[in-house]
Design goal:
The protein has helices at residues 20-25, 72-78, and strands spanning 17-19, 32-35, 38-46, 52-60, 63-69, 84-86, 98-105, 112-123. It is mostly beta strands and 126 residues long.
Length: 126
């Protein structure tokens, strides 16, 4: 789906994952969505396995999402920071920066397909 999407929720849900069995019964129309998130914050933390994880917290249609970032450039950029929460300004971007995210559905893992921030595209409105 593209930016002028009509669906309010990412892949039809507000969760960070979709049960694989649900996708088998009701396949998604696509496995990628391009969105314009607002209120983007970055979180660097250890996941339940103790591995370092970078997440994006953002809003889309007044719904808050908290998704894992898999964009390699952003993993490298944010990998230098300590655990914690960061604004875009905290990581060296100007206040007026906006983003496009490509959201993808991951392969099944423990019975769920997770929504992932596969690409982060910063831009500066005119």
């Amino acid at each position: 789906m593209l930016l002028n999407r009509t669906e309010v929720n990412l892949f039809g849900t507000t969760s960070d994952r979709i049960p694989y069995i649900q996708l088998e019964q009701y396949p998604a129309k696509s496995s990628l969505e391009i969105i314009q998130p607002v209120g983007v914050k970055w979180v660097i933390k250890n996941n339940y396995s103790g591995n370092r994880q970078i997440r994006a917290i953002f809003y889309l249609h007044n719904v808050e999402y908290d998704l894992v970032v898999t964009d390699l450039d952003w993993l490298k950029k944010l990998g230098q920071f300590d655990l914690g929460y960061y604004t875009s300004e905290d990581i060296g971007l100007p206040q007026q920066v906006k983003f496009l995210f490509t959201i993808s559905l991951g392969v099944p893992y423990n019975g769920d397909c997770y929504k992932l921030v596969a690409a982060v595209i910063p831009y500066f409105p005119q």
